[in-house]
Write a structure and sequence with these properties.
The complex is a heterodimer of chains A (114) and B (112). Chain A is mostly beta strands and 114 residues long. Helices cover 0% and strands 50% of the residues of chain A. Chain A starts with a strand and ends with a strand. Chain B is an all-beta fold and 112 residues long. Chain B has one domain: Sandwich (Immunoglobulin-like), CATH 2.60.40.10. The chains are: A mainly beta (114), B mainly beta (112).
């Protein structure tokens, strides 16, 4: 079975622009979470979606938004990009929402804001 | 919120050596996962181990939930083991999202 997939792999944007990142979960997984990893740190939780509903949100500004589609794929949108948004964005999927379910990560999208 | 501390922050080994990585957490948890992040950024699942002991080849892990720590053992290390090892825990309270809280990681370099 295919693992979690993310697109694009790399992206370069200019300050003030917006960006859309995409994620497809493992087949049969209904929960998708997004994490941001800046250089030298561990990933930080941004959002979790389960059955197309937002189930959790981390400490990120309203410029960050996400949604989940009926096929359980997900998009992360970031508006008004700042230099500090440069990071590796990771998507994780799990069978369901909740701490009892192992999460599996995709390869990430590396975003550079200039 | 819960704090996750990993030690050591950096580790350099000769190929063939054994090592132990530690993860301490400040509150009770219901999920603990160990990951290996390769040079391309991919997080590879090593263990899902909220308690007990598991082994997978040269790797094994033990979580003592009552004492709030987990250990990752790497035996007969290989150069391909190089990378960053993360411990991540989940303790949801009322939210039940399963969001993972990561430690700062241990950077392992295995020299040939």
């Amino acid at each position: 079975d295919a693992g979690v997939t993310q697109s694009p792999t790399h992206l370069i944007k200019t300050r003030g622009q917006h960006v859309t990142l995409r994620c497809s979960p493992i087949s049969g997984h209904k929960s998708v979470s997004w994490y941001q990893q800046v250089l030298g740190q561990g990933p930080q939780f941004i959002f979790q979606y389960y059955e197309k509903e937002e189930r959790g949100r981390g400490n990120f500004p309203d410029r960050f938004s996400a949604r989940q589609f009926p096929n359980y794929s997900s998009e992360l949108n970031v508006n008004a990009l700042l230099l500090g948004d440069s990071a590796l964005y990771l998507c994780a999927s799990s069978r369901r929402s909740g701490e009892s379910y192992e999460q599996y990560f995709g390869p990430g999208t590396r975003l550079t804001v200039t | 919120g819960i704090q996750v501390e990993q030690s050591p922050p950096d580790l350099i080994l000769q190929e063939g050596a054994n090592s132990t990585l530690r993860c301490n957490f400040s509150d009770s948890v219901n999920n603990l996962q160990w990951f290996h992040q390769n040079p391309w950024g991919q997080l590879i699942n090593l263990f899902y181990i909220p308690s007990g002991t598991k082994q997978n080849g040269r790797l094994s892990a033990t979580t003592v939930a009552t004492e709030r720590y987990s250990l990752l053992y790497i035996s007969s290390s290989q150069t391909t083991d190089s990378g960053v090892y993360f411990c991540a825990v989940a303790t949801d309270g009322s939210s039940n999202t399963g969001k993972l809280i990561f430690g700062q990681g241990t950077t392992l370099q295995v020299k040939p």
